[in-house]
UniProtKB/TrEMBL annotation:
Highest taxon listed in the record's lineage: Bacteria
Membrane-traversing stretches: 32-50, 62-86, 92-113, 125-147
PANTHER family tied to this protein: DOXX FAMILY MEMBRANE PROTEIN, MEMBRANE PROTEIN-RELATED
Taxonomic source organism: Chitinophaga japonensis
Name of the protein described by the UniProt record: Putative membrane protein
Keyword Membrane set for record: yes
Keyword Membrane assigned: yes
Keywords from the UniProt entry: Membrane, Transmembrane, Transmembrane helix
Amino acid sequence: MAFLSGLLSIGGLLLLAGYLFRIPYLQQLQTDARIAAAVMFILIGVMHLVKPYKLTYMIEGILPYTYALVMISGVLEILLGIGLCFPATRVYAGWGLILLLVLMFPANIHVAVKQLPAPGGLPAAPWYTWSRLAFQPVYILWVWWAAVTA
């Protein structure tokens, strides 16, 4: 839900800035959604690289090379987030992020089933870890609408 809060906050601020400062480019909801997604994926990717050991627990026991996988996913999130910013790579980056979200879904299921704490120091309560699963399709739809259909 923190990721969704970031998407909505950044997107809303961009839209507001577009109208306040009369910037036509930022008055387009789809553009603001794409920029918000780029910012959030870049931030999350950086977190993967800066604090990988805070995320490895999510896949320990189900996949080998946990450290490497966290680092690779971080690099991909950053590169694909940047890719959302350019018309020539936007669609490819969108599909790449959708694939990444699908591939990461089992880690979120593992966290919920094993009643592990949510990443980033977020609540470990079962209601929270299970509710995170419901938001994964929302993120996929967000990226699809903002990047692939643009």
